[in-house]
Structures are given as structure tokens and as C-alpha cells.
Amino acid sequence: FLSVMVYHSSYNEVQGCRQMCNMSILPLRTKYKGPAPQLKEDKPDVIDEALRFFKANVLFRNYEVKGPADRVLLWLTYYAKQCLKKIEKSSKQDAEKVLYQFAIENFQIPGDSGFVFGGFFHNPKGRQEADTVRAYFTQMRQELGVRLIELVYKNNPNAPSKWWTCFNKRKFMNLA
């Protein structure tokens, strides 16, 4: 009998983080403005975790959430998969433009009718919380795009690594 384990965020146990929509607003190492505080310690943030665990977690059809940071990890994994589809045949220079545009375009947040993880997140408690969640997601989208490009184009600036794009054919949690 083989037990398969998904990877969970090490930030699930962190105390003192703001909570919105049943997820943590976690510190990030980022140059982008937003509601996430700057991570002061020299350790991986949740975006690093999402990219490090991506290749394993993307294979799962189910994901048991163990804490509020797992919801962030779940959403980042899904977003990384969408990014990889967008840059599948792009050069690094084109991918940077594509992912920047993708990060700032309109997207669904918890409470919107098309948000894919409705059962995992609570709806925002009001307009201000919805705006904060949208800003947090935008901040993470921008930062994840920059870091993903560095990984995917590490060996060749003219084409993405097949060891990343090979996951485009897989469905994550039975979603696109």
C-alpha cells in the first residue's frame, strides 16, 4: 500500500498573519506593491514553496487543506499552471510581457461566480476585503510570473524548459 502525500505550506502554523476569505495574507519577498508585508527573514516565502512543490502538487486531483496558507499554495499552483500554458511556445522576452499582462488583467476572486476554488475560500466580508484580496492576488501573480520565468528559461532564453511545460497536459484538481 503506497500512501501519496501532497506538499503543504510551512506557513500553516505561522501565527499573527491577517486572515481574509479563509486564507492567510502572508509575507512575500517582492518588489511589487500590495497588502502582503515584506518577508524580513532570509527564508523561502509561499511563492517559493508553490514553485518548489509545483511538479508534485500539480499531479493531484484532490488536495486536503491543512491550514489557511495551503489555500494560498493551492491558488498559486493553479495560477502557475495557467502561466505555463500562456508561455508554452514563447521566448523569455515574450514570456515576460505575456505574464506581466496576464498578472494585471481582470480575474476572479473568492465570491465571484467563476472563481474555481469556491469551496475552499470564503467570500469577502465586504467591498474593502474584496479589494484587498484582489490586490494580494495581483501582487502574488506579478511576483510568481517573474520567478517562474527565471526557472523555466534558466537554460535557454529562446524556449521554455520541457521539464516545466510537460505539465501543461495534466489537469490540476480536475481543473484546466
Structure in words:
There is one protein chain. Helix 1 (46-57) crosses helix 2 (68-86) and helix 3 (92-104) packs antiparallel against helix 4 (127-152). A hairpin with a 2-residue loop joins strand 1 (18-20) and strand 2. This protein has 176 residues and is mainly α. The chain is built from five helices and two strands. Strands 1-2 form a two-stranded antiparallel ribbon.
Secondary structure layout plus pairing:
Layout: E1 18-20, E2 23-25, H1 46-57, H2 68-86, H3 92-104, H4 127-152, H5 162-165
Antiparallel strand pairs: 1-2
Helix pairs in contact: 1-2, 2-4, 3-4
Number of helices: 5
Spans of at least 5 consecutive residues whose pLDDT stays below 50 are none
Query: What percent of residues are in strands?
Result: under 5%
Biggest sheet overview: 2 strands, antiparallel
- Return the average pLDDT rounded to an integer: 92
Order of strands in the sheet with most strands: 1-2
General shape: globular
**How are helices and strands ordered from N to C?**
EEHHHHH
- The radius of gyration is 16 Å
- Percent helix range: 40-55%
**Main structural class:** mainly alpha
Give the number of DSSP strands.
Answer: 2
Distance between the termini: 30 Å
